[in-house]
Amino acid sequence: MTESCTNCHLPITTHQSLLHLHGPRLSALLKKDAGADVVDVALPEDRAALYESAASAHIVNRIEALDNTDSFVLLDTDDAEQQLANGIESTAELYNMLSGDSDMDFPMCAECTESVIAALKDQFENLTKERDVYIQQIRRLERPSSSEKVSNEEEAYRAALQEQTDLMKRLRDLETHHDSLKQQLAELDKEHEAIKSESTKFWLEQNKLAAEIDQFMNERESMNLIYDHDSDQLNKLRKTNVYNDTFCIGHDGFFGTINGLRLGRLPDILVEWPEINAALGYIVLLYANVLEILNISLPNYRLIPMGSTSRIEVLDSHHRPTKVLNVFSSGEYTIERVLTFRKFDEAMVALLSILKYIYKELLKRDANLSIPYKIDREYINGLSIKLSVNSSNGEWTTACKYLLTDSKWVLAYSSSTAGAAFANNDTS
């Protein structure tokens, strides 16, 4: 069987005699005196011989010398395989016993074994010298001592007893301190468990709070988006003058217009009366809205906007209607033309009076205001608003144009006042 030296790692061949070792022989090779207090100093010498034999070709003779009662038994050829297996196992056991009882690993070659043997011999000599020193010391102690030595020894004994007492006291103190520390440790463990429980509770609440914060932030972001959208819409509405869009006053050549409807008639441009009546209906509606915006009450009139058939009620001192003025005309020319146009003229004068009253109320709020065209009784900028007086020319058409211009001015001021009031309410 070929193996490697555990020291130099060179290949070695195990001697065939090692394949025939048995348990009793292996035990005899490594024997220790179990009842002795000191290891047999002769053991290194025996082991050195064993190690030397294990590395040589004559290890069989040395192993047989340890137990003369045992001898090698030659096995039959049929048991060769079993013999080889048992030999390998016995050899491995021998190597394990040798390796376990020393600081070296086996197997080793002859050269490495010689080095080991030399080291064991040195160890043997050192142990022998140490043994001799112990023997001399024991003999010296066994000799009778003088009184001075006895006194010294008694003193040393008493000192040793005192030291023992002190050490015992210190040990008791340390045990007491240990018990105190153990109790403190138990309390700290309880406190740690409580803190751990509180920490777990805290993190659960923290995670819950974090989830609520995330939900709140999402809702807040959504609300901010809605707020931004509504603010944009509000700004657009603030910039949008709904009254100007509802009552779009302009002009078309010589005619003043409201929402595209012409107000007036010319000899060469005969505007149909339904268009004129519709325009007058828008004027009545415009005045009604302005009065509502400015929170103004008319003392003598009540506006009834009804489109092309709008009316104005004349009130007495108790605000009871005494007359109804039609702010429209059929435009038919009959024998009663003069009477018909007088009623229409009375309605036109009422419109002009209502416009003048609104202007006076605005002057109470802002004395620096100035209407574009001055109103004096039935005249506006010096032209009469009566159709019966100006039916033969375009003065009535121009007067109606002035009426629409002043109406637009009043509407613009009223809408700006309403916008400012709305902005103040929104801010507050």
UniProtKB/TrEMBL annotation:
Coiled coil (residue ranges): 110-137, 164-198
Keywords carried by this UniProt record: Coiled coil
Domain Atg6/beclin coiled-coil: from-to ranges: 107-234
GO CC term, one of those recorded: phosphatidylinositol 3-kinase complex, class III, type I
Record-level Gene Ontology MF annotations: phosphatidylinositol 3-kinase binding; protein-macromolecule adaptor activity
GO biological process: autophagosome assembly; cellular response to nitrogen starvation; cellular response to potassium ion starvation; cytoplasm to vacuole targeting by the Cvt pathway; late endosome to vacuole transport; mitophagy; pexophagy; phosphatidylinositol phosphate biosynthetic process
Family: Belongs to the beclin family.
Name by which UniProt lists this protein: Uncharacterized protein
Naturally occurring in which organism (per UniProt): Tortispora caseinolytica NRRL Y-17796
